[in-house]
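Anyone have tokens for Protein CBG22654? Sequence:
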Amino acid sequence: MEYAESYCQQNNGTVMSIQSQMENTFAQFRLPIYWKMLGAKKVAKNTYVWLDGTVWGTFDNRDPLDYYSDTLDCLTISGLNGLWQRANCSSMQDFYCKIPLGPKVDDSKCNSTMLMVPTEISSAGGPCKWQLVTPGAYPISIYFVDMANGTTVELYDENMQLSQEIKQSGVHFDAKTNILNVAHDGVGSFKAVVKAQTYSA
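Reply: yep, here.
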């Protein structure tokens, strides 16, 4: 899966996600009988996310008779019946990249001199830095909603002292001040939501 993610990102795409029966049928009939890897990963028991950031919606074509081990964290689609089954993320499955039409819009806010919070930041396909600032004295809170395997994001305080390295999705970090510096070396991909910490009495 790591190779598939990297290859698709280099071509301005993501490993195939499927949002509807129409997309599923389209993918199924362009596959031979064997399996293709989907751009999904398990984040909890029986719970998956799409790596391209789209919401895991109401369309879910997982095979109810899937007999593969529940310890497997990725999904494949069958060219025979279009059903999805669990698969080993490290297996060398074929894959398709889903590439949007038109020019890729860079919404990463990469190398912003000073980025006001609340905001979202994401990988830009290369090395990138952000300086995040909240107005007033509220410290910053950052939550990593999506992160590909092999990705590392470094968080630095206002004096550029390393505070923490983030290497997985679902991590939440509260800074001690209203300034937080973020650095990504360009390897892998991530998306994070940033806001000011608020306190209730």
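The first strand starts at residue 14 and ends at 15.
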